[in-house]
Amino acid sequence: MNEVRFWPDERQINVRPGTTLLEAGRRAKAHIRTRCGGRAACLMCKVKVPDQSGLTPANLNEKQKLGSLIGDGFRLACQARVAGNVEVHIPEDPLKAAVRKLLAERQEEDGLNVPGKDE
């Protein structure tokens, strides 16, 4: 069994070699987005794996879809298979990131407009 850790969810699970990161994530209740159900069609399950020694090499489909991003540590969770212990960083959902940024900007603006704040 191999240990897979998911960040920022701080989830971990032990899985058999050959398990995809997407399946490991589902079992660990770490949310990895996907629209195509794991067929490498949507690219939404892209994750960052800084040390890929715990994964099997990228297959042809994954290489074609990700290109040079593989060299930057990205893999498709639906295609990448566990071969050892591995840490997986799940990127923030773009919509959530946009909402978080907007809320932070509004909070900052509200802080600047509070009467007596800078007096």
Keywords:
119 residues; alpha+beta; two-stranded antiparallel ribbon; elongated
Number of strands: 5
Strand content: 15-25%
* N- and C-termini, Cα separation: 61 Å
Global shape: elongated
Most strands sheet: 3 strands, mixed
Helix segment tally: 3
Order of helices and strands: EEHEHEEH
Read across the widest sheet, the strand sequence of neighbours is 2-1-5
Mean pLDDT: 92
Q: How much helix, percentage-wise, in residues?
A: 25-40%
Global structural class: alpha+beta
Low-confidence stretches: none
Radius of gyration: 18 Å
Structure notes:
This protein is α+β, with helices and mostly antiparallel strands and 119 residues long. 29% of the residues lie in helices and 18% in strands. It has three helices and five strands, in the order ββαβαββα. It has helices at 21-28, 60-66, 94-112, and strands spanning 2-7, 11-15, 46-48, 74-76, 86-89. Strands 2-1-5 form a three-stranded mixed sheet, with helices on one face. The chain has a two-stranded antiparallel ribbon with strand order 3-4. The longest helix has 19 residues, at 94-112. The chain is elongated.
